[in-house]
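Task: sequence in, structure out. Protein: Transcriptional regulator, TetR family protein.
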Amino acid sequence: MPDGSGGEIKKGRKFEQVLEGARRIFMADGYEGASVDDIARAAKVSKATLYSYFPDKRLLFLEVAKGECARQADLATATIDQCRPVREVLTEAGMTLVRFVTSAFARGIFRLCVAEAERFPQLGREFYQSGPAMGRARFVEYFESAIERGELKIDDVELAAEQFQELCKADLFQRMIFCNTHDFTDAEIERVVTGAVDVFLARYGA
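Result:
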């Protein structure tokens, strides 16, 4: 499968089947480790069928990445219970967010987008809209509800949502990218997320 950005995605009867097979392989092996043979086998389609839908490996990976980011955004906000204390909600959502951001799959997305940013800027833009921007929008919705209930005091909810996500990644993301550190323990993640929630509520708590 070519690695260029040429070609367009063509949807058809086996489109979702191909995506699910590719998702399993990309999640297990990452972008570089995923082979066309393995993807076709997991999707139970021929390589010709795979090529007919996705003539470009990057297009296939990006499509899988967009779907997975949307799924993770749903997971991060699905546990939001408006009746629970803000601290509990933010801690649980933050833990879910960081576990995904530091996963092998997310690393693959980030590195691909950075590597191809100049040649194929649409890759990064599409990932941003389906990943970080979507997650921020979910937090904005929650913050607005919490403000109405008198639990938070925020003037700029867009900025606050961005700040919270960045606080949750403090130290961990930099170590992952620059030090090639991958296997963070729950204790390490909890330490950072708890600190993020403390700082956030110190600034925006009612």
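The mean pLDDT is 85.
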